[in-house]
Amino acid sequence: MPDFDEIMKMAQNAQAELQKAQDNLDKVEVEGASGGGLVKIRATAKGRILNVDLDESLLQPSEKTMLEDLIAAALNDARTKADQAANAEMQKMSAGLPLPPGFKMPF
Known about the structure:
It is a single chain. The chain is an alpha+beta fold. The protein has a domain of 69 residues: Nucleoid-associated protein YbaB-like domain (Ybab, Chain: A, 2-Layer Sandwich), CATH 3.30.1310. It is built from 2 helices and 3 strands, in the order αβββα. It has a 3-stranded antiparallel beta sheet with strand order 1-2-3. Strand 1 and strand 2 form a beta hairpin. The longest helix is centred in the C-terminal third of the chain and has 31 residues.
């Protein structure tokens, strides 16, 4: 059984790995889309929006409501993909940690 110093060192290593994984999430990019690609939103895995791309056919006053719906759907798609990418990165980070079976990381 590890002594207190070993446990503290493992905790510090885990904290450093977690910080590294968190920092990496700004480099992981995802794209959410809606309307068959008429609206595309690029974001980081942390959820920061990088770009919004709108098909020109949507830039008509009569398409305002549809455009609003498509933007909301694309944002939600990007957010879902960002969450999935973040979870995948955190799973990679925690894979090497000596955690008890069934332990879930708080992220």
